[in-house]
Each structure stands twice: as structure tokens, then as C-alpha cells.
Amino acid sequence: MTVNELIQKSEDYLKDSNNANYLADIKILIAFFMKTSLAKLYAIQNDKINFKIDDYWQQLMAYRNGKPIQHITNLQNFYGYDFYVDYNVLIPRYETEELVDNINIIIDEILLNNGDKPLTLIDIGTGSGAIAISLGLENPSLTIYASDISTEALKVAKRNIKQLNCKNVKLLEGDMLEPFIKNKIKADLLVCNPPYIPKNQNISNRVKNYEPHVALFSDIDGLYFYREIFQNWQKVVKKNGILCFEHGYDQKKDLEKLVKEYFPNQKYYFQKDINKKWRILFINIL
């Protein structure tokens, strides 16, 4: 059987599935089994497959039943870098790349206005390390501390640090701000993509059944972690620092009320993502 024939058979098998991304994911899965890149797969579509077809169909069936493609390949590309992912971490989303992109712009502006000022950044709830490591690789002069409450998640982040040869990210274990306070770390930038899904909200089984709930769900309104940071940021962020957050697309109104409550004299702004949904919050500490 050729690669192209297997693509066609796989598409026929999944065409009535509930996954809107199945056309792209089939090619990702076949490239994984062929031990080649997605780009090179298109050049070898007439080649014979070089793997056990039964193993492939077993994984395709698991995919049809809800298993994320990233948990089959243990791979997710984020900001141009390939990250190892598994059941212990949230799969990095493309919307979060926009958060990283905007933080890179902020860092460039700070360095432009302040010369070679050494900058420190903290990433709360790092998971796979995608945000911290991407920022570290893009900004080698940055000192980054990334934390997580999950020992298993930190093992994944450590693996990605080694795999991507990132030299400027240090990992800390602990809840929320505790490891930074304990180590007397004060940063110029605080970054957090916290669990923000309200605990009673329905989400797809593909997410609920395969990704860690500690990285997904918050309290009844999804704003618990924002409140915690808003109340205690002074302990970990320097004067003139910047707080950077991702949030749910429908949380802007409630989150803005909290910002006005805790930061009545600070500048802040919300930003939409590529889908024109509110997604990012920045607070400038004056």
C-alpha cells in the first residue's frame, strides 16, 4: 500500500467522525509512522508504507475514539519548536503563541528603551514549558523561572528544556507564587496562562478525557487564579513590571472588573486573538 492510498482509506474511515481536523491529523499520523516530516510526506506519497499497518490502524481507531493526535505522537509544534507532550500537561494551543508573540514585542521595547538591562521573567503554571522555553530561546539574555505544582508536568518541561537546548529557564516546584516568594525572586515580567475554565462548564470529551484537569479547570467563574495573583503580585514583581495573562474568550467583562478593583491606578489593555476573540490581558505596573 502506498502513502497516498493509506491517506485515502484513512479519510474514508474518519469522514463521519466528529473531529474537524481529521484531514490534517491523518497526514501527521502517517508522517509519524513513516518517521518523516509532514513537509517531506508530500514528496513520498507514491512510496510504499514502511511500517506495520495494524499498529497504524490501532492508533487511528484510538484517535477516532477521542485520543488527541498529540498524545499519539507525543509532539506538539509551538512557536516553531517541537515540544514533547503527554497526559501530564496541557497541549499548547496556537492562541497561546500570540501571547508569546506579544511578550517578545514587549521585551524588545524594554531593551530598546533601557539598553542591555538584564530582565527576569516568571512563568506560573508552566506545564510543558512551552511559553517559558519559547521565550527563552527567542531571548537568550532573559533569565526565566518557570513553576508548576505538578511534579510530573515539571518532568515534561525538563525534558523539553534538554531537547530544545534551552539554557536560560530554571524550573521550580510549588503552588502559584509560593516558589518565587520562597526563593526571593522578583521579576520584570510575570506570565501566566492559568486554568480558566469554570468547573461546571461542559467541554469536549477529547479535552476532558485526556488532558489534566488541574491545568484546565478553575473555580465556579474561572477567575480564581487571577484573583490570587492580583492580590499578591507585589511579592514577586518589581515596580514598573508587566503582568501578562491569557484568559477565556468570554471572561473579559468579569476580568476587567477585577483589574479595576485591584489596579485602580495602573494601565491595562486587552487584546483579541487571530479569531477576533478577547484572549490576552496586559497590566503595566507604574
Describe this structure in words.
The structure is a single chain. The chain is α/β, with parallel strands linked by helices. It has two domains: 3-73, Helicase, Ruva Protein, domain 3; 94-284, 3-Layer(aba) Sandwich (Rossmann fold). Helices cover 41% and strands 18% of the residues. It is built from twelve helices and nine strands. It has helices spanning 3-14, 22-34, 38-41, 53-64, 69-73, 94-114, 130-138, 151-163, 178-182, 205-208, 224-232, 252-262, and strands at 76-78, 81-83, 120-124, 143-148, 169-173, 187-192, 237-246, 267-272, 278-284. Helix 1 (3-14) runs antiparallel to helix 2 and helix 6 packs parallel to helix 7. It is elongated. Mean pLDDT is 90; it is low at 213-217.
Task: Please render the helix and strand layout as text.
Blueprint lengths: L2 H12 L7 H13 L3 H4 L11 H12 L4 H5 L2 E3 L2 E3 L10 H21 L5 E5 L5 H9 L4 E6 L2 H13 L5 E5 L4 H5 L4 E6 L12 H4 L15 H9 L4 E10 L5 H11 L4 E6 L5 E7 L2
Parallel strand pairs: 3-4, 3-6, 4-5, 6-7
Antiparallel strand pairs: 1-2, 7-9, 8-9
Q: Characteristics of this structure?
A:
41% helix, alpha/beta, single chain, 286 residues, Rossmann fold, 7-stranded mixed beta sheet, Helicase, Ruva Protein, domain 3
